[in-house]
Known about the structure:
The structure is a homodimer.
Chain A: H1 6-16, H2 24-34, H3 40-52, E1 56-59, E2 67-70, E3 77-81, E4 87-90, E5 107-118
Parallel strand pairs in A: 3-5
Antiparallel strand pairs in A: 1-2, 3-4
Chain A binds a DNA duplex through helix 1 and helix 3.
Amino acid sequence: MKRKTRQGEVILEVIRSAGRPLTPMEIHRRASRRSPRIGIATTYRHLKDLGQSQQVVGVDYPGQPHRYEWADGKDKVHFACRACDKLFALEDTTENTPPAKAPKGFEVQGFEVMLYGTCPECE
Amino acid sequence: MKRKTRQGEVILEVIRSAGRPLTPMEIHRRASRRSPRIGIATTYRHLKDLGQSQQVVGVDYPGQPHRYEWADGKDKVHFACRACDKLFALEDTTENTPPAKAPKGFEVQGFEVMLYGTCPECE
DNA sequence: ATCTCTGCAAAGGCTTTGCACATAG
DNA sequence: CTATGTGCAAAGCCTTTGCAGAGAT
């Protein structure tokens, strides 16, 4: 994506302002409000592109659809609610210290933490 | 799955002895050696069932296919190699202490850690 | 004017489901 | 014998791709 287009701007803005990881459908739905005839394929194309340029990262939790969020380098910790299946981005209190050691020979470049349980709304 | 069948036994044994998370295809391929005419649908049916009975857990890493592993309650830490896309189960050195805090109102029931980087073979 | 991006629809890959037969209990 | 489990193929998602036209530079 070398050119600046309305669709690209809208998709980026949707992800950037979401505050939590969104599914492609959620992104597409939100983007549609600001750019009505946008296609789902365009959404996927931008997601792929934004992923490759490190602006967006994927967040997966088993049994749930893929999600994507803005990559500001801070969202390494997430919370998955097992009741409502929502995903939340939590403040990172790990101070960039990998919470586990890898055996010799493994070069650790980064890490992610997923907490799971019940969110305030489902409490 | 209330009945004991050859296929069920084989699938369970494949997962239990794998030592690392496997994709449905890998599981099916390995199971086929011991039970040649086993269908992929049977593999999926057992995976679903074993997941619901907590004997098997899913492990996801963005951009890679879903994987499943034996749930012995110890494999909370994994390593994803970005070069060869393999997933490894690491020894858990977290001592069951969640590596991050959740805000008030979130009830943490468990957690998982994913380290990523380069594995010994791809070093 | 040129080359990229978009929308649409078709194609692909992975997972689930329907159904008749096999098989455990 | 009866109900569950299996294999096969079809159906269902979600995601990617091909193509002609729209749009950015």
